[in-house]
Write a structure and sequence with these properties.
Oligomer: single chain
Number of helices: 5
Order of helices and strands: EHHEHHEEH
Helix content: 40-55%
Distance between the termini: 26 Å
Largest sheet: 2 strands, antiparallel
Length: about 190
């Protein structure tokens, strides 16, 4: 598998007035009273942006983000395992750099998180997704619940006995819940 995704296409923007005001006053919410120079700068900024918009429509708006994906036949043999190592770092980065949080339904979080804000609930949902995909990357997570190796009746075939069947079942349910949350909040995986 080879995936190349380039950055989103940019547009020309004129921020001369905004940069000047931010540098002078240090914040974006300026008072209504500006000096004549600042008013003139704002007017020139608007005219220049109108000029830029012509080029934006003619050139920049026609460009699209370039995406190239090559899939080999073996990539789909166990596609869930192929995608998991790609999804994990993306979810981790999203959790670190998020600037907002979507509405998270109270039934998707434990009782103690239901009265909290969306950020706490979203962190919980992201953690559940990350954990589920990390477990998917572990080839033999079920071995945590195996018992000792026993010889079979004919002494040629051996087998493992389950020592913690309920623990294995809870582990699987938690993984399934993480994948369910990934599907439910898939359209909210943006920053």
């Amino acid at each position: 598998m080879k995936v190349k995704i380039q950055n989103y296409p940019s547009r020309l923007t004129c921020n001369t007035h905004t940069n000047y005001m931010t540098k002078k006053y240090g914040y974006v919410d300026w008072d209504d009273e500006q000096t004549k120079f600042e008013n003139c700068l704002e007017w020139c900024d608007g005219r220049l942006q109108n000029f830029y918009n012509i080029f934006n429509r003619l050139w920049f708006d026609r460009r699209q983000q370039k995406v190239s994906v090559h899939i080999d036949p073996w990539d789909t043999w166990s596609m869930d395992c192929t995608l998991a190592p790609i999804i994990i770092p993306m979810l981790i980065q999203l959790k670190k750099t998020k600037h907002g949080a979507p509405y998270v339904y109270p039934e998707d979080v434990p009782d103690k998180l239901r009265p909290t804000n969306d950020f706490d609930r979203w962190d919980y949902v992201l953690d559940e997704m990350i954990w589920a995909f990390e477990q998917k990357c572990r080839d033999h997570w079920e071995q945590d619940y195996y018992g000792p190796y026993n010889k079979g009746k004919d002494e040629t075939f051996g087998f493992f006995e389950w020592t913690d069947d309920k623990g294995r079942e809870k582990h699987q349910q938690k993984m399934s819940n993480g994948f369910r949350l990934f599907g439910k909040y898939y359209e909210n995986l943006w920053d």
